# Entry
Amino acid sequence: QEVPVDRREPAATMSSGKAGHPAYFDPQNEKAYMKQPTVFKNKKSLMKKGALAPRFFKNIGLGFRTPTDAKEGVYIDKKCPWTGGVSIRGKLLRGVVVSTKMKRTIVIRRDYLHYIKKYNRYEKRHKNVSAHVSPAFKLNEGDSVVIGQCRPLSKTVRFNVLQVVSEAASGKKFAKF
# Structure
């Protein structure tokens, strides 16, 4: 049985997070005050006890569901496709997570075969793609994910994680070959 999330005082109630998930941590972890620009927090009806703070989230379309953490969580992320101002357009790609060392950014490896005409054979090649990951997802290395193209978010990031296809299995395995 799930307990309803209380979004009135995130610093006091969500400091440890819901099972350590980053979507339920205190959103005020930066120097600037973090808030969703489309939500007005000083409404009189919200000042009453028991009233939940409003939260902005949207459906991005393309057949992808809005994660429950985007609806119920307290995280603030302006680059999140569900709670921020980023729209998904262009290519949809699939890859395997290689690195999760950056803050809210992961590196995805995409394997493919390249045909060599002279030898009438294929060789394995790969490309690494950086993608922004919303705090609604908790990813580990080896997970298979779907990413969607968006506007440039930084020097190297032009994609956003939209779905976790499969969790990483223990042990060494090949993705496609």
